[in-house]
């Protein structure tokens, strides 16, 4: 039996109804913030966030939210780009390892530049945060980096967002 929305009591925390926070603007702000966080912290998992976005209803909100999340993600990666620009000054061991790994990739693929950024943004080979560090090390044009990263990550995340709908269409 389905209950209508007016029958269900909204959840209240500190006297505020959580229903008042559920709007497309709140969803977009959340998608941006979490995208930035997953971009800034190289733990992977951005794809899991995209799968959660794919569950949003109404479905016309899914792709705009994916694009907003992608923008946040790419802007979060700019932290890693900046780390690359500071590579000679990095002292912390865990951060030094990230910079050293990026420099290994740079030595391995010295002439590929934008193609490596595009490949990494699209398929995460090499790992995208290392590519961002490498782009900073060589002082790649930051706007080109952002545009290529946004397009590559947008295609990647857009494809991931389509997977649940494809399964539903095939098996639902």
Write up this protein.
There is one protein chain. The chain is an all-alpha fold and 172 residues long. It has one domain. The protein is 67% helix and 2% strand. The chain contains seven helices and two strands; from the N terminus they run ββααααααα. Strands 1-2 form a two-stranded antiparallel sheet. A hairpin with a 2-residue loop joins strand 1 and strand 2. Helix 1 runs parallel beside helix 3 and helix 2 crosses helix 7. The longest helix has 30 residues. The N terminus is likely disordered.
List descriptors.
single chain; 172 residues; mainly alpha; two-stranded antiparallel sheet; 7 helices; disordered N terminus
Q: How are strands sequenced across the largest beta sheet?
A: 1-2
The string of secondary-structure elements, in order, is: EEHHHHHHH
* Poorly predicted regions: 1-8
Percent of residues in helices comes to: 55-70%
Structural class: mainly alpha
How many DSSP-defined strands? 2
Number of domains: 1
Mean pLDDT: 84
Shape: elongated
Q: Whole-number radius of gyration?
A: 19 Å
Terminal Cα span = 21 Å
**Count of individual helical segments:** 7
């Amino acid at each position: 039996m389905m209950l209508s929305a007016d029958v269900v009591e909204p959840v209240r925390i500190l006297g505020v109804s959580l229903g008042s926070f559920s709007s497309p603007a709140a969803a977009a702000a959340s998608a941006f913030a979490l995208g930035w966080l997953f971009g800034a912290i190289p733990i992977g998992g951005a794809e899991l966030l995209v799968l959660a976005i794919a569950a949003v209803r109404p479905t016309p909100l899914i792709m705009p939210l994916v694009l907003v999340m992608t923008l946040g993600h790419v802007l979060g990666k700019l932290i890693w780009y900046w780390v690359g620009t500071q590579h000679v000054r990095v002292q912390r061991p865990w951060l030094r390892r990230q910079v050293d790994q990026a420099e290994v990739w740079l030595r391995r693929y010295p002439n590929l530049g934008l193609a490596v950024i595009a490949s990494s943004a699209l398929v995460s080979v090499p790992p995208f945060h290392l590519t961002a560090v490498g782009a900073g090390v060589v002082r790649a044009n930051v706007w080109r980096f952002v545009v290529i990263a946004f397009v590559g990550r947008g295609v990647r995340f857009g494809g991931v967002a389509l997977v649940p709908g494809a399964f539903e269409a095939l098996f639902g």
